[in-house]
């Protein structure tokens, strides 16, 4: 499974408008809802927030990968974005976040969910790639960079 199969330009926001962790989570879930990928936005947001309470999904190096499970979502879906300014996300390394990937899927898609999380984590570990994503000026540029990285 490639990430650009889960993500469309309509599900990418550059820049994200939220100025706090909670605002960003709500914005990304709303983006999925507005695109028809999530019917129960409140339930999905509650699931993502519940997961976030266990341990921050701010994985370090300015990246957060919030995620949750909800049976109101028929299949694994993703939204992403880049913040205009760094946002405190209670990240594991204490650094603020600029790059976000939100994953939401049904309870029975745990395998796909883990594979997608792993794929994102591997890709954003590359300093040059991460910096290029943060510098993207549009959703289309973000998607092109993602497709290019997945072709490697």
From TrEMBL:
It is found in: Cytoplasm. Signal peptide: none annotated. Transmembrane segments: none annotated. InterPro entries: PTrfase/Anion_transptr (IPR016152), PTS_EIIA_type-2_dom (IPR002178), PTS_IIA_fruc (IPR004715), PTS_SugarTrans_NitroReg (IPR051541). One of its GO terms (cellular component) is membrane. Its main location: cytoplasm. One of its GO terms (molecular function) is protein-N(PI)-phosphohistidine-sugar phosphotransferase activity. Keywords: Phosphoprotein, Phosphotransferase system, Sugar transport, Transferase, Transport. It comes from the Bacteria. One of its GO terms (biological process) is phosphoenolpyruvate-dependent sugar phosphotransferase system. Residues 5-149 form the PTS EIIA type-2 domain. PANTHER family: PTS SYSTEM FRUCTOSE-LIKE EIIA COMPONENT-RELATED. This is Fructose-specific phosphotransferase system IIA component.
